[in-house]
Amino acid sequence: MASTLKINTLTGVSTAGSIAVTGEGNSTTTNLQQGLAKAWVNYDSEDQATRGSFNQSSLTDNGTGDYTTTYTNNLSGAEDKCISVNVWNTTDDGSNASAGSARGGSRADQAGDTVQSTSSLNWMSYFGSSADADAGNFDYDGNYCITHGDLA
C-alpha cells in the first residue's frame, strides 16, 4: 500500500543535519545533504537577466563572458566545492555552443586565475577552438552554473 508523507522539515535523529538515504538494492546509503546542489543560476548574459537561481544573492556581469555569483549562504571552504558551468546559444539553435563543433565550440569554467572564496564564485564562458588559449570570452544566451559542497 502506497503512503504519502507531508512534512515541512526533515531532521536527522542522531545528527540534526545528517539524513541517510538508502540506495538502490538496499545495500548502500547516501547522505542527503551531500547530494544536494548548494547554489545554481541560469543567466542570460545577452539580456543581462537572471532566469532563475538558488542561494544566490547577486550576480555581477564583469564584462564579456566574465561573471561573479555571490552566495546568499556561504560555503564552508573556498576550495572544497565542486562547480559545473555550461553554456547554450539559443540565437542559432545552439550549434555554436556545442563543444568540439566544426565552428570551434564553446567552454565555460571557473576563472582559473581568480582566488575563489566561501562567499562567491568567478566563472567565465568562451568561444573558440577546443581549449586553445586564444579562445575569446563570449556572452551566451544561456549560462548555467551549479555549485556542490558544504554550507558554512
Summarize the structure.
This protein is mainly β and 152 residues long. It is built from no helices and 11 strands.
Write the layout of secondary structure elements.
Blueprint: E1 20-22, E2 29-31, E3 39-44, E4 49-54, E5 56-63, E6 66-71, E7 81-88, E8 106-110, E9 120-127, E10 136-137, E11 142-149
Antiparallel strand pairs: 1-2, 3-4, 3-11, 5-6, 6-9, 7-11, 8-9, 9-10
Describe the structure.
This protein has about 150 residues and is mainly beta. Helix content is about 0%, strand content about 40%. The chain has no helices and eleven strands. The strands form three sheets. Strands 5, 6, 8, 9 and 10 form a five-stranded antiparallel sheet that branches. Strands 4-3-11-7 form a four-stranded antiparallel sheet, with no helix packed on it. A hairpin with a 2-residue loop joins strand 5 and strand 6. The radius of gyration is 19 Å and the shape is elongated. Residues about 95-105 have low confidence and may be disordered.
Give the number of DSSP strands.
Answer: 11
String of helices and strands:
EEEEEEEEEEE
Query: How much strand?
Result: 35-45%
Portion of residues in helices?
under 10%
For the structure shown, list the relevant keywords.
single chain, 152 residues, mainly beta, five-stranded antiparallel β-sheet, four-stranded antiparallel β-sheet, 0% helix, 41% strand
